Structure formats: C-alpha cells, structure tokens
Amino acid sequence: MRLRYTFRFQQVGDTWLGSAVGQNAPLFNGVLQLNEVGYFIVSELAKLPDKPESEILIYLTDRLTNEYAVDRSTAQSAIISVLDYLKAEQVLD
User: Among 42, 50, 55, 82, who pairs with 2 as Cys (CB 3.0-4.6 Å)?
Assistant: First the structure.
C-alpha cells in the first residue's frame, strides 16, 4: 500500500488541504481535507515504500504514539479512519 499521488498541503485554520501535484495530478480530481493527525499520518505514509497494510499500521501506530500522547488503540483507530478515507478518495495503491 502506498499513496498513488504526490500531494502538496496547505493549512487553512485547523484543516490541511492536499492537492495532487506532478505528472499524475490530473488523474486526481479533488482535494484531501485532513485534521492535524490525518496530515501527520499522510505525511508519514508518503515517506514509506510500498508495504502491506499490516506493516504500515504497525509503523504508523508507533509513530503516532511517539508524536502524540495517545494509547495504541486510539492511534490505530485514527490510522484506520484516515486509511479508509484515503481508500474512499482512491488515492491508495
């Protein structure tokens, strides 16, 4: 699993807006809308090579619990929610 597009983000209030950039940008006709945690998750996901979802979940859970004062269960719930959103937006391979 990996991001299908490269995104450029801009913060507007409490929301991070992501627009696709690069040669594949015209294939994504939309804007990602994320909160701070969602932006952190997508930023970390963008750094990773293509890996199985189970490995990504473990990595992102570790990163999220180290960055924010949350337990593993809360972190995993947030990650799954963001991944579901990204799947619905069709930005994951």
Answer: 50
- The domain limits of the chain are 6-88
**39 with 16: CB under 8 angstroms?**
yes
Helices then strands, each counted (H, E), the chain:
3, 3
DSSP H helices, 3-70, are 36-47, 53-67
HSE on the CB side for 11, CA within 13 Å?
8
**pTM of this prediction?**
0.94
Q: What are the pLDDT digits (tens) for 31-75?
A: 999 999 999 999 999 999 999 999 999 999 999 999 999 999 999
